[in-house]
Amino acid sequence: MGAKSGLALKALQWFVRGIQFLSCAVALALFSYFLAVASRHNYNIPTWSKAVEGIAGIGVLYTLAGLLLLCCVAGHPFASGIALILDVAFIGAFIYVAQANRGGASSCRGTVSTIFGRHSASDRLGSGLPSYHQICQMHSAVLAVSIIAIVFFLISAFLEIALVRHRRKERRFGPSPANGYTSGYAKRGFFSRFRRSKGSEEEAINPNTLPEHTQPDQLRPSYNTESTAAGPQYNKYGESGFQHDGQTAYPERTSYPAAGQQQHYGDGTYTR
């Protein structure tokens, strides 16, 4: 289960990085075309267009590196921490890109605002060049992909957090009987979180401890050792006694003679 969820997270992050790469590539391609046309025909190049070009170019390099390294360092705390910071930074950067291309939000008819200034949509940049209407539509495309990039950079930031947490769980719960001695952590039901006290008691039991021996109800009497337990009616000296350390041991007196009668013992005569 753990391996499958980790693979699913990596596949989802790879898809997200792919969308980011395509969005950055579209913005880079269109603004590279704008700057090439402006440089060839001596148009004034605004500073914000160079900033958009730089953001799109760095975004292409970053997302391409993310696609290539995802299978190697996915979920690593250091790599994911850097990726999380860069994702948040690119969210702010593409907000700036969307704001710079806000002219593409119009219908691209009448007077349009483009990188080459405000002109009528029916005018053309020059012979063999696109019209301002087409330039406005290119700005609309950059605006659209910048919004898509913002959303997917936000998603990738949350996925980086999920990958780090999954990696920590994988390292915390190694192979065990609960997960069939495979990688990942054991399956847990929805209501298992409400049985934490019972689970903690079960975890406290050492699985390597041998079971306790059963205790018999009745213990066997023995004549060989004094440490062996015996029943309440058992006389350890036997019926007639035996020699121990040079002295003769006799059984305990359990009855006494009647009045006026004598009873002989090995240690003397008892008269009542």
Automatic annotation (TrEMBL):
Residues 197-272 are annotated as: Disordered. It comes from the Eukaryota. The chain crosses the membrane at residues 21-39, 51-71, 78-97, 141-163. Residues 221-230, 260-272 have a biased composition (Polar residues). The keyword Cytoplasm does not apply. Keywords: Membrane, Transmembrane, Transmembrane helix. This is MARVEL domain-containing protein. It comes from Xylaria grammica.
